[in-house]
Specification:
This protein is mostly helical and 125 residues long. The protein has a domain of 75 residues: lambda repressor-like DNA-binding domains (434 Repressor (Amino-terminal Domain), Orthogonal Bundle), CATH 1.10.260.
Length: 125
């Protein structure tokens, strides 16, 4: 018989998994940092089980995201984005930070150039 999961648990679990993967953490690494078992994390991410508020707060602290992001969905405000970047950059050796910053700068320049081309193409139509 097929088991049905609470839709809220499924959504929250999916957000946790996306944020964990964005932080490039394995289930084992992440569960250790949050102080839960890897199996319990799997159950949370798949929506089989809900996490306590205490566990949700630990998850958010480790990932550098707000509880709103996990409970309600991503909000692209600048503060949250800065926290996510900070969590990722903390894992980079200091000697490589200039390289990472240069790569990010290059990506932003490419995005801006693509947007300008797209804007120009729309004007031509």
């Amino acid at each position: 018989m097929r088991q049905f999961y609470k839709p809220t648990n499924v959504k929250i679990g999916a957000r946790i998994r996306m944020a964990r993967e964005s932080a490039r953490l394995t289930r084992e690494e992440f569960s250790e940092q949050v102080d839960i078992s890897a199996q319990f994390l799997t159950d949370i991410e798949r929506g089989r089980m809900g996490a306590s508020l205490e566990t949700i707060i630990k998850i958010c602290d480790v990932l550098g995201v707000t509880t709103d992001t996990i409970l309600r969905g991503p909000d692209l405000d600048e503060e949250m984005t800065a926290r996510q970047l900070s969590v990722l950059l903390n894992r980079v050796p200091r000697t490589l930070l200039p390289l990472v910053i240069g790569n990010v700068r290059d990506q932003v320049n490419l995005i801006e150039a693509a947007q300008e081309i797209e804007k120009s193409d729309r004007k031509d139509d």
